[in-house]
Backbone:
């Protein structure tokens, strides 16, 4: 195996055999150890995947797999000894093998250049080549002028193959073609070529004879490259193969009876594929097949993000932007700041008019949750060593450039208004009266009237809040952004007069987690942890001796609570953030991003049934003796009730206009409380689905509500802008409220105090504090008792634990125990990952919590 990274050979399977240098780049050769070698495999080469289809894997490629590729391509491209093939791919990228072997197979010339020349070849090199195989990103790096020269009638280029990434749009290709040039009798043949390293190398090909595309779907992937390649589409919801020839959408799988690569991570038995059985490999790509049988690439199955309660596919958004603007757009999610960045590649600086036109199109054509937080124009795209878009490097470049600029709350607002809403706030002199008047009119609009959305308001307030140390000021800003009565002029004046507090020393910030010396601490240690392969944002659930949880890797895993031994595994079609609800001794249910509520046997790992509610499910379902009631993000009805025995629909209801993130609360045998992202909260009758009453708060409700165990059964809600509200269960009217110093995403936990007259309420806050409030039942008065600062925001719900403690988690991975008698820290455990999962407890000493480091943790406190 050849790699430019020697570390890849530090495995029991490999021995570093030697190295060689090509154009000042050192490549290392690894030799598979004899004990692992099987002569019958007739391996041609071994290569490592880049990780674009999942975790990087070692792939052993036999001659029987790669040779049909070479033979078919040589025939399709009509390669002869007179051709000149440019070796664009590096040796660590499997198209290198194709370029190399095609030249050997037909005796063609192979033009070898260094890495710099591969990305920006000279005009002299381009004039000589007849065959070019590369990624669209590498081709773009040539520059528009050089690309047009390739398509010129006098160009020597015969065939252009583009693969490894999404094929360019028809509109972009037309921009590359030379203008005002007479048609040539022999135009350049352009191919869309597709494949994965696990099926080395190419699987399908499509010659774009007339640059024919299917509207919004783009250029088809084409037909199998050879007669031994088989294509299969699996449904996203149940992973079952869809009927051949049917119009459908799902994940593409590639297989063959002949072309078999050996992958140790998957093929534990080296001889398993000698029985002439077809073996399919997952691509991780979402494709759509039309009625004529044409396949179109849609995007990566898992390239979706959660944006303030909405699911957004970045690949689909890029396709949409490409069709709108006829140029490559790159969508990046900055997870740290929770911001959506859209980058446009432009060889010249955009003028103000073009920029304003772009902003206008974005506002009119994109949905609210698709609107960017920042728009960037870049001169060139950073590429990986394999010639693909390096999104990590691009994001790093943007972040580093931003860090060099000293930002203030006012400059952040100005940048947003300028780049996203198209409202220029540069200083205007008296000589330019018309622009000044226009600016004045713009600034007299409210944030929402100027084009801002509630998503923008929350994102902007959180971004500015990273600078503000004053949580009360941050909360006030969010209220101003959401208010239709507050103008942009008011907001800019507010931020202009904001006085930035003196920075808090890091030692002082970390001292918020210092442990008092006089406290008898509880020791917390890790009992076990389990890898769920991707973020575990869902809250774990316990039944008997089983703990179950889902993750972003589309799997629900169940474990023995004491040993961590895996009990069962269920594969779903999309990410899971909904908690598991146990129905019986063997049956449980969980909601999924695909809009389906799954019933599954958590002891055997088998799916029992599916209920499609047509909207993302994050909220915990309610299971009664007769019904299953589930809330979702569905647009038509966001609340559904099904009969538990027959699974038939009983009733449906639409609360507000947005989705439901907050888990519903059953307050009696007859009534359930629902809260949604419009700020609506409603008490719904379980049997009929009729609302007893509906009320609305001023901002979205992410927090899961609670009920007081008092005579009046008051309800406790928290809206995102920091208000905790006590309301009547009879009519929903507000009784009392408390204003926290930051946004609230955490649920509410209640505990009866020593006196029947007092009830304590606990919740986490974005201001990095865990709060304790007291509600006096006799006077209906809600008051502040104490708060304790952690090292980061608290999104998960604090829960009452053991020995009079409260368990709380911060987004920096701190799991803390708080003594409820003294309001002091009782214990701390640090996890190397963000925590959004709410913990659960068993046997009065075990804590289970998920993390964004992909693990479920079982902790023991004693």
Residues:
């Amino acid at each position: 195996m050849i790699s430019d990274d020697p570390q890849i050979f530090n495995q029991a399977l490999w021995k570093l055999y030697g190295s060689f240098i090509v154009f000042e780049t050192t490549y290392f050769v690894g030799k598979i150890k004899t004990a692992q070698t099987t002569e019958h495999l007739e391996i041609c080469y071994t290569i490592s995947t880049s990780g674009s289809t999942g975790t990087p894997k070692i792939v052993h490629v036999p001659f029987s797999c790669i040779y049909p590729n070479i033979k078919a391509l040589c025939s399709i491209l009509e390669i002869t000894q007179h051709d000149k093939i440019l070796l664009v791919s590096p040796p660590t990228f499997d198209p290198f093998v194709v370029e190399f072997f095609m030249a050997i197979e037909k005796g063609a010339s192979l033009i070898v250049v260094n890495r710099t020349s591969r990305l920006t070849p000279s005009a002299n090199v381009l004039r000589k080549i007849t065959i070019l195989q590369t990624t669209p990103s590498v081709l773009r790096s040539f520059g528009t002028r050089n690309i047009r020269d390739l398509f010129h009638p006098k160009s020597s280029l015969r065939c252009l193959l583009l693969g490894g990434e999404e094929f360019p749009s028809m509109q972009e290709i037309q921009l590359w073609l030379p203008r005002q040039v007479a048609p040539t009798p022999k135009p350049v043949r352009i191919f869309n070529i597709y494949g994965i390293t696990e099926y080395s190398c190419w699987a399908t090909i499509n010659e774009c004879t007339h640059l024919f595309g299917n509207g919004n779907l783009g250029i088809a992937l084409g037909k199998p490259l050879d007669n031994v390649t088989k294509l299969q589409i699996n449904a996203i919801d149940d992973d079952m193969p869809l009927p051949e020839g049917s119009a459908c959408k799902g994940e593409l799988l590639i297989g063959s009876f002949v072309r078999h690569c050996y992958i140790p991570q998957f093929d534990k038995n080296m001889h398993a594929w000698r029985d002439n059985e077809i073996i399919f490999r997952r691509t991780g790509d979402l494709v759509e097949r039309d009625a004529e049988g044409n396949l179109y690439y849609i995007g990566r199955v898992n390239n979706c993000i959660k944006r303030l309660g909405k699911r957004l596919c970045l690949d689909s958004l890029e396709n949409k932007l490409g069709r709108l603007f006829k140029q490559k757009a790159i969508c990046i999610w900055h997870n740290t700041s929770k911001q959506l960045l859209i980058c446009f590649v432009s060889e010249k600086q955009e003028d103000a008019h073009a920029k304003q036109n772009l902003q206008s199109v974005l506002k009119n054509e994109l949905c609210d949750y698709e609107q960017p937080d920042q728009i960037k124009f870049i001169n060139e795209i950073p590429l990986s060593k394999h010639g693909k878009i390096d999104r990590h490097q691009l994001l790093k470049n943007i972040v580093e450039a931003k860090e060099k600029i000293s930002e203030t709350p006012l400059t952040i607002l100005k940048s947003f208004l300028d780049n996203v809403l198209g409202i220029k706030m540069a200083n205007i002199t008296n000589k330019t009266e018309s622009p000044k008047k226009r600016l004045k009119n713009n600034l007299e609009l409210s944030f929402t009237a100027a084009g801002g959305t509630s998503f923008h308001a929350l994102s902007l307030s959180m971004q500015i809040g990273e600078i503000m140390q004053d949580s009360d000021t941050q909360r006030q800003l969010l209220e101003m952004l959401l208010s239709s009565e507050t103008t942009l002029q008011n907001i800019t004046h507010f931020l202009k007069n904001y006085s930035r507090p003196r920075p808090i020393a890091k030692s002082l910030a970390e001292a918020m987690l210092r442990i008092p010396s006089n406290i008898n601490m509880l020791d917390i240690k890790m009992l076990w942890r389990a890898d769920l392969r991707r973020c575990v944002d869902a809250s774990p659930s316990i039944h008997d001796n089983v703990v179950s949880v889902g993750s972003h890797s589309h799997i629900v895993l169940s474990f023995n609570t004491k040993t961590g031994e895996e009990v069962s595994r269920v594969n779903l079609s999309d990410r899971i953030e909904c908690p598991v609800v146990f129905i019986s001794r063997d049956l449980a249910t969980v909601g999924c991003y695909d809009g389906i509520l799954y019933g599954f046997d958590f002891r055997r790992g088998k799916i029992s049934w599916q209920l499609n509610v047509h909207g993302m499910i994050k909220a915990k379902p309610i299971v009664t003796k007769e019904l299953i009631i589930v809330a979702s993000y569905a647009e038509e009805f966001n609340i559904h009730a099904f009969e538990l025995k027959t699974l038939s629909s009983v009733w449906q209801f639409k609360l507000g206009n947005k989705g439901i993130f907050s888990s519903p609360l059953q307050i009696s045998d007859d009534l359930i409380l629902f809260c949604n992202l419009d700020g609506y909260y409603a008490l719904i009758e379980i049997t009929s689905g009729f609302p007893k009453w509906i009320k609305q708060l001023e901002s979205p409700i992410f927090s899961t509500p609670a009920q007081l165990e008092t005579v009046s059964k008051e309800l406790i809600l928290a809206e995102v802008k920091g208000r905790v509200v006590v309301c009547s269960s009879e009519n929903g009217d507000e009784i009392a409220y408390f204003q926290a110093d930051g946004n609230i995403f955490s649920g509410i936990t209640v505990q009866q105090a020593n006196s029947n007259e007092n009830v304590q309420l606990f919740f986490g806050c974005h201001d990095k504090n865990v709060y304790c409030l007291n509600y006096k039942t006799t006077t209906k008065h809600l008051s502040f008792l104490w708060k304790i600062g952690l090292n980061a925001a608290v999104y998960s719900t604090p829960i009452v634990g053991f020995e009079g403690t409260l368990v709380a988690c911060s987004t920096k991975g701190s799991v803390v125990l708080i003594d409820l008698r003294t309001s002091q820290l009782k214990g701390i455990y640090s996890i190397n990952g963000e925590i959004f999962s709410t913990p659960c407890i068993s046997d009065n000493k075990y804590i289970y919590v998920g993390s964004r480091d992909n693990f479920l943790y079982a902790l023991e406190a004693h």
